[in-house]
Write a structure and sequence with these properties.
There is one protein chain. The chain is of the alpha/beta class. It has seven helices and eight strands, in the order H-E-H-E-E-E-E-H-H-E-H-E-H-E-H. The N and C termini lie far apart (35 Å).
Length: 216
């Protein structure tokens, strides 16, 4: 199974959620996308569920000598989430990464202001929070997002992705009330391998999508 692009993946995923909504298992939903790649997927979900769309801005914490190697993640003012195994292999501690964490936290705040354009974060208490991304590989960023959303007090918390690794679903099973996915391949290397079009999105594309969703 492959997806043409994130929009098509979102439509397939939306079909699973609409069915849950018809069964009364998705009460008062709000869709929370991980930028950037999760935003077009989330836009399709929000439209199908007649739900508001917002974002959970997560920043990966990279290794000091190779920022592309993710060893943790953070959201807003929540404590950072670290991959303890990666820290041990690299001989790092959270204290040694405090400067990098502070820098990423400032970037989270900058992007929240940029993407929301002055709109307040949605009220989640008592609602069904639907966290969405374009795929799930290791689950480090998703874990940070789920813990931040859980702290806001939703009645129910779902993690939804078009494609995911088996290991990530197992690792995150206690973080969400339900994990919904279209496809879990037996062999998983990277999210992008399951898309024909997996081009990086720009901030402008994210802003346009969110603005349109809010009637802008």
């Amino acid at each position: 199974m492959r997806f043409q692009d994130r929009r098509e993946a979102g439509r397939r995923l939306a079909g699973l959620l609409v069915e849950r909504q018809r069964q009364g298992r998705l009460d008062d939903p709000v869709v929370l996308a991980l930028p950037r790649g999760g935003v077009p997927v989330g836009d399709e979900l929000a439209g199908a569920l007649h739900a508001p769309l917002d974002v959970v801005v997560v920043r990966k914490i990279g290794a000091p000598y190779n920022p592309e190697v993710g060893i943790g993640a953070l959201v807003g003012d929540q404590p950072p989430i670290f991959d303890d195994r990666a820290l041990a292999v690299l001989g790092l501690t959270p204290e040694r990464l405090s400067v990098r964490v502070d820098a990423e936290r400032e970037e989270v705040r900058r992007r929240e202001r940029l993407y929301r354009g002055g709109r307040p974060a949605p009220e989640l208490r008592g609602r069904t929070a639907v966290v969405v991304d374009d795929g799930l590989a290791t689950g480090v960023t998703a874990r940070a997002a789920l813990r931040a959303v859980r702290a806001a007090g939703p009645a129910r918390l779902l993690l939804t992705v078009p494609v995911c690794s088996r290991q990530a679903v197992t690792a995150l099973s206690g973080e969400a009330d339900e994990i919904v996915y279209v496809y879990q391949p037996p062999f998983f290397e990277a999210v992008g391998q399951w898309y024909d079009d997996f081009d990086q999105l720009t901030d402008d594309e994210v802003i346009r999508t969110l603005s349109a969703a809010h009637g802008g």
